[in-house]
Amino acid sequence: TYAQAGQNFGLTLLWTLPLLIPVLIVNQEMVVRLGAVTGVGHARLINERFGKLWGAFSVGDLFILNFLTIATEFIGVSLALGYFGVSQYISVPVAAGLLVVMTATGSFRRWERFMFVFIAANFLVVPLAVYRHPAAGPFFAHMVVPGVRGGFTPPLSCSSSPSWGLRSHPGSCSSSSRISSTRE
């Protein structure tokens, strides 16, 4: 996850953010517009345009990416609560149980509001970063100068690839479905 990649590689991966943020924005915007204009979801559009083979590939890809995303989230929960002395054998099952309870018993509206609370909590990182008093020079230098502390190694690809690529596809499909389901 991002925290683990930051811990392992410091500021040296910041240069990827200016490259990845526009890709994510374009991807999300394109899929949301497709859902709003056509009134159907992402998977149905792929089935209609490219056939069942590519539709099945897209759905299979979606399941794999969602599984990997959830796995990295549980790794993040384990690491975060591990800092407070909570065993991973307790934190991961409790997080999994909460996830099942929230998705199986609640409405989408309640789930959406719950996620907005998590988004607001993520903004607490900003005061923590300011409290740390980081030097501005290295921050801006690493934002534009490519490089990775220790080089491109297997630990780099294992710890940071979930942060880089697993967010765009699952999010685009859910955005398209959400927009197409609310279209009148």
TrEMBL record:
Gene source species: mine drainage metagenome
Subcellular location(s) of the protein: Membrane
Residue stretches of biased makeup (Low complexity): 168-184
Keywords from the UniProt entry: Membrane, Transmembrane, Transmembrane helix
Record's GO cellular component terms: membrane
Membrane topology classification: Multi-pass membrane protein
Pfam families: Nramp (PF01566)
Protein name: Natural resistance-associated macrophage protein
Residue spans crossing the bilayer: 12-32, 53-75, 81-102, 114-131
Region described as Disordered: 161-184
Taxonomy of the source species: unclassified sequences, metagenomes, ecological metagenomes
InterPro entries, A to Z: NRAMP_fam
GO molecular function: metal ion transmembrane transporter activity
